[in-house]
Queue: 2 jobs
Job 1
Amino acid sequence: MITSAIIPKPLARLPWRLIFLVASIAGFGLLVLFSAAGGSVQPWALKQAIIFCVFLGIAISMSWVKESTIKAITFPLYAVTLIMLVGVEALGFVSKGAQRWLELGPIRLQPSEFMKPAIVLTLARFYELVPVGEIRKWRAIWPAMLLLGVPAFLILVQPDLGTCIMVGLCGVTVMFLAGLPWWVFVAPATAVGVAAPIVYGMMHGYQRKRIDVFLNPESDPLGAGYHISQSKIAIGSGGIWGKGFLQGSQSHLDYLPEGHTDFVFATMAEEWGLVGGVLLIFAFALVIRWGMRVSANARTRFSQLAAAGLSATIFFYVSINLMMVMGLAPVVGVPLPLVSFGGSAVMTVMLCLGLLMALERQQRTTSSLA
Amino acid sequence: MNRPTRLTTAHQSITFSRRMMLLGTAQAGVGALLIGRLGWLSIAQNQKYQLLSESNRVQLIPVPPRRGWIIDRNGKPIAINKASFRVDIIPQQLTDGSTVVKELTSLLALPPDEVDRINKELSHSRGFQPVSVADNIPYEQYAAITVRLPELAGVAASRGFTRYYPGGSAVGQLVGYVGAANEKEYEAEDKNPLLLVPGVKIGKEGLEKTLEQTLRGVPGGQRVEVTARGKLVKELDPKPDRSGGTVQLTIDADLHEYAARRIGDQSCSVVVIDVTNGDILAMPSMPSFNPNNFSDGISTNEWKMLSGDDHLPLVDKALESLYPSGSTIKPSMAMALLNAGIDRKQRVNCTGSYPLGNHVFHCDKRHGPVDMDAAVVHSCDIYFYEMCRRVGADKLAPMVRSMGFGEKFDLPFDNQRYGTVPDPEWMLRKYHRQWQTYDTINMSIGQGMVLINPLQLAVMASRLATGKRVIPRLMKNKPVAPQAQLEVDADHLNFIHSAMAGVVDHGTAAAAKLPLDGIQMAGKTGTAQTHNLSASERGNYTAANWKLRDHSLFMAFVPFDKPRYAAAAIVEHGGFGAAVAAPLIRDTITFLYDKQKAMAALDAFEQSIGGPLEERMARKTASWRSANGLPPLPAEKA
């Protein structure tokens, strides 16, 4: 918070440190996109800059929204998103092809993206409504499972495994923080752990191969493992200081596929090296820590759970993407927010940040009144 | 309502804080894991990935080294490289493949199977690797392509090098030929990528094959930066190539070519050796193929013609063909007889026939009483039948062997055959029977089991000339092998020298006297029977029974009293040794001393058989083609 006589109070009260941090990440991302296009703002950097500015504006405006308003629109928002998901499914069924978005005039709406903050808010709202004593009871568990399970299933069959996992993890995080008993989390995890080898044994050859390739991408460097092999080559060849801005051969010679979207981190690390990578990870860590602080300082149960869940959304975004490009997780198609080219991830992350800023403003308002 | 486990807001707050702490820790853990992984990839494995990234980025287009020359003892080229024109397609620059290929087909008059090959290679190629369209094309076609290059996107017309043999077919059997590597050769060299480069030729036969590693050189490379799709981005500093090494032979190219031409239309091989050091000065085998035609791939028809020829142009007769030595073995036999204590003045009465058991051996003439000198000079068989029978094969074979028959020589050819000098022990081992007297009789005149190649015959002449173990040498850089003394008396040697001089002076080869003053040749004729023809048939040769005729052999050394050169010729089905082989050696030896005189003799000879070598070969090809219903070849390309 900047305090100055010159700057008007509403502006001065914005969380400038966060905005500066986010803008830095996005700015760095623009540099990477500029390089990925071979030293050109076209076709990605300029477009991305506009998208980012628009959503930054929206996020800042959102910071004036009251917590009560957020609570009020939570369930309707969830319902609308769910209907849109069903709509996408129906449309895909009619056009006999996988579809993830709805065409609304010039805007292409991807409802599964909205579902990430929506599920967090919904579950936060739900657990706020659950009386304190009921939290360990079945009736505190099954509605949440339903609220989470239905959209997750709809997204899974789109099919969009990456988003499905993200939505699931965000929801589970809120449920975890809400204080559900441990067995709710431990039992399914154990079940998966036990079932995985059995399922693997029952799998078809091509399905097994996908798993094998994830576990050892070099076993199929020209086929399924190509993305991950090339990504590791890009990151590893960057070394500590990187090959230098505009000097990455993996991205510029097209060896690295998706070097401007999902694998943008590899493009970055090739040119900026370990140093660039660590700085970027730290910047994201600071953003997430800021969000977690908002949650820790929250006065209401809703804002506690919502803030933590929204921060977790950003965390999962970043960590799943980085694990994916560094060969620690299978390639599931999760972009690196604020850096990867594309509007959806920026939109989701900026919505989360906007909501977080709103919740944070609420804390300061109440605290200053107290 | 009063259950002790009842949860309160305070409880919930504690749970939340605890779980937030847990979540924060887990997030920090993931962060640490990510940074650790990043560090592992970019520090610990940096080198590995940098290598992989470089091998992605940089591709090496091998630039073939220029093949080393083969030169003769005086530095005259035997195999060199000639600038040639070639056309390739660079697939990545190709926009409209089918049109371009169609256009090239009509411009270069490509046969349909070539077009198929080009289309196939184009569909399999990586963007930057050129696909060969045509090699060694005439300048007119090269020019026709170059003016149309703007409309032929992706076509590259360039100058390259083709192997060129100035001697043409005269050196064919000596040097062999080069050609593009086939699948097997590619596998044998562990898939050396150089062998796939269009225009790269490797030795397929003869010296080109056996000296391949010296001649090839070290390929350079054009290092280029390419994208994942094979598009060339920029050229990096090239890696220079190193030309193959020059190989100097002991061959005298002029003499070699002279002998080849002097052979005429015979199926024959001549070997000339410098007896002082064993240098092989000439070793033509004729008829031969023209290696220049092989270096850009030989047509099926040409191959058919060559392999169907009964004069065996695809065989290096000097080293691969084995013949009975005939009477040329007699001087060595004489040396063996002298060592065994036979008095050279002792006479044997030649009545023209020699009965042994129920078989009668013949002599070609009734010589009357002959001593050793007369027996050599007039090549009396009956003298040797009798004397050799007396001495026995066990004392004969070692001498013949020490003179070079049956001996293996270390020469850079991979298909030499060494022949046989039989003896009782060998007979038992090989045919499981006892040695009989008639075996000695047969062996005494170089028939029966005795088999030699022309090089061995020339080596025998050298050893008879010097009394030393002359070892033939072809590579000029190889040290001269020390010549050990043979088990022969100087006196015996002098005797055989004068007897062999008598052969040329007044004996069987009297027609082969050197037309030179003060230089006298010593020699020995030989006529090797291939079929049991009657005397009247022998005197009445026709073209029809060519294959039944005797081989004509001659070996010689000059000057007889101070030997310097030795030579041998074996003319397949040439008839009497004196008639064909001896004049051939006479002219070849004359060339060593008086080129003008020799050339005059050659011109007259070539006139008599219908023109120079290449002309006759072209005529032969044309007649073969018309006989096989093929259209005549187009006029020789410029």
Job 2
Amino acid sequence: MARLRNVAVVGFAQAPIVARDEHRIATEMLYPEIRRALAACGVERDAIDYQVAGSADYLDGRPFGFVTALDVMGAWPPRQDLHLEMDAAFAAYYAWVRMQAGDCDTALVCGYGKTSEGEPRRVLNLQLDPYYHAAIGLEPVATAALQASAYMARTGVTDRDLAAVAARNRGAGARNPDAQLRAPATAEELLRTPWAVEPLREGYLPPVGESAVCLVLAAEGKAEAMCDQPAWIHGADQRIELQTLGARDLTRSAGATLAAEKALAMAGVGRAGDIDVVELCATTPAEELILCDALGLEAHASSLSPSGGPLCGHPIMMTGLIRLGEAFRQVSGRARARRALAHAAQGHCLQHNLFFVLGAERRWA
Amino acid sequence: MKRPVAVVGVGQTHHASRRSDVSIPGLVREAVDRALLDAGLEHADIDAVVMGKAPDQLEGVMQPEQFLAGAVGAHLKPLVRVHTAGSVGASTALTAVTHVASGLFERVLTVAWEKQSEGNAMWALSPNLPFTPPLVAGAGGFFAPFCRAYMARTGCPPHIGPVVAANARANAGRNEYAHLREPITVEDVMQSPVLWDPIRYLETCPSSDGACALVVASAEAARKGPRKPAWVKAGYSYAEAMWVPGRDQVNPQAGRRCAQAVYERAGIRDPWKEIQVVEMYVPFAWFEPMWLENLGFCDLGEGWKVVDRGEQKFGAHLPVNPSGGVLCTNPIGASGMLRLGEAALQVMGRAGARQVPGVRNALGHAYGGGAQYFAMWLVSDEP
Amino acid sequence: MSEPPREPVKYVETQVRLPYHYVAGDYRARYLRALKDRKILGARCSRTGKVIVPPFVTSPESFAPADEIVEVADHGVVTTFCVVNIPVRGRQIELPYVAASVALDGADISIYALIQECRPEEVRMGMRVEAVWKPDGERQGDHEDIRYFRPTGEPDAPIESFINRL
């Protein structure tokens, strides 16, 4: 493994996830988070030499919706900038790639979008191929249910098992001041919730919610002054699979398996189970089980998604970036985890997966 | 850039107002297949895919890179989707360059496209922003006031736009891929209806379906290829906020800064002398003199005189848009990559009938938003 | 079960209908409510003192908060404009119409506005204009409370005063 540049997450600010913020538009939600993240790093905007964001026009409900974010990102004087139509976690990934190219030393990564303004289940129907999958009316809960159903048939996992996963996440979310769902729930309670799309109950699915997120990355030489305990990136990899639902084994995430393998190898980690904390971007309990299988993790480890995961708050275009931010908190905050694994996913049935391995020490000497 | 990056393959579709002969994957594949063939590569040789396009509302598919992943050979590869409004094709190419420059990827396929005949482009470009009076009528409606301001600032006479438009069409006549290729005269343009005064119909870009794909690679990979590559000496993308008091949309700072960064990095001290061809993003004819100034090819106020003297025509000192440019072909998502790809073709000596002789350095440029996003690269025949 | 098509299927037509329920945000809401009182509000940048219209949480120029709400005039200068001759789907506005960038007195950002009560050919860069409001009792507190801007008849502003701040 060639020596890479040591880059760290040095700051993270997030608006608490709420069902709907009636007082602020997306950019007004983002602005204070950018200021907070920079303040926590002890720097002014001019100290940051790159900015990159992730959002989706269709969730914003307007073409070119992301352009307005420039008005709150301190984009004057003109800045080196990029915007991805992806979960903002991929924006963080690209910023990391750019640092490896030596083209920036610090980066502001932003995620924003008022998910509450549209109807995400209807909007995300449009993520599917327009000729067939979208035309037959599939939407994210239905596709997730197809995956869950296939998984349960192959493995023998039951409704009760799904409820247990969801209950564990709810318990964790209750301890997360930024989560949207902050009341714990028992498996029994969740088992009594009605079917959303069988075999997924409403209690297993995230509510509609929104947030705004800002994460700061810095390379070695800059990171140390910006954070007492940077979360150094030891490994990163992302893989997409083809979308066609019938053409892949929905019960196994080949993309997550491969991306994790590559990220862990880069990090010099033998097994995901050796990592102290894992934040998974699983929007259903079946996804979490599939990801655990891909990573070779025990399904009910207490170190899984201490934030409560997407079940407790899923603003969609930044849910993955929040996992990275939460992993940063575990390494940089009181818990002082030695290493953390952050996962981001987008697309139907875990089509596109991204992993970051973070560590308290630099990876490369 | 940590290490040199080369363009080893270029492919594009035959652009048209409606490519009803292909589906979206078919359109994208036409460009991708050509780029891979050009590079002498297979999908298995590609380490990552970077895709770009403009608003998804143009086709009614959200994040179409997801359903296209299989078609572009991205299965189990890294993929990134860029969206920076009109400049996206260019910023997408630059994103691919960074992937290679990082040392993490050897060969990256990048593709930018738009199949906007499938939606309603005028609607998608005239956003009814909530709680705002709906006055902006398409991109032309947004930019026309600034074209007027350019004319007021510089004394640019009314025939300059028509001269640019007629020249662009003459250029497109040499480009078998262009959408609008029929020659037009200056008189034709001056007689065409005014859409958003001062912009006339024939001074306006078409709405096109099309795609462009490139393969960018490390020096080591480039040397193994069948062709002489184009070397990316520098490439940057900049953006600026909209509501800045006194922001100049006629000579935007983001454009000036981006060009300066590119020239400095590429070692260009006098663009007018050292660059032999420029593919710049001109969706409305008046932007040609404006961008000549913004890109530092001439002093402020002199851009229209360059046009008036014919110095930007094919065969003259600094041919602008020998491909015909955006005025003749505008699949919005692809246009920026077409500019950068055409610049690369010029350096590679593979621009066919539109080849400018003796190109050492070529600039490819694109812009988007309310003249807020700028992305450009300088390609050369040597690393 | 119906017969398969005799010709290959060439087109799939889909209607996309998505409802969006937008939030105005407190800054924009306050601006709109003030229109009912014939007031146009802006926000002053805490660092530069410049006034952004409509009011916004921050000045895009300075990145500083812009939370002091101030009133600007309902008259100003056309800095630049275009005459629109083509329709947009879903819009009722009569063609041709003049869409102008108007620098209101007291504001450092221009607003986009409709110019009426003159022929399009009469509109000039530098022309002084004033808002024409809906009558008292008819204003609702939305952007239609200003019907359009019209020339005041005053002498044009000198070009130097606005050519670099369109």
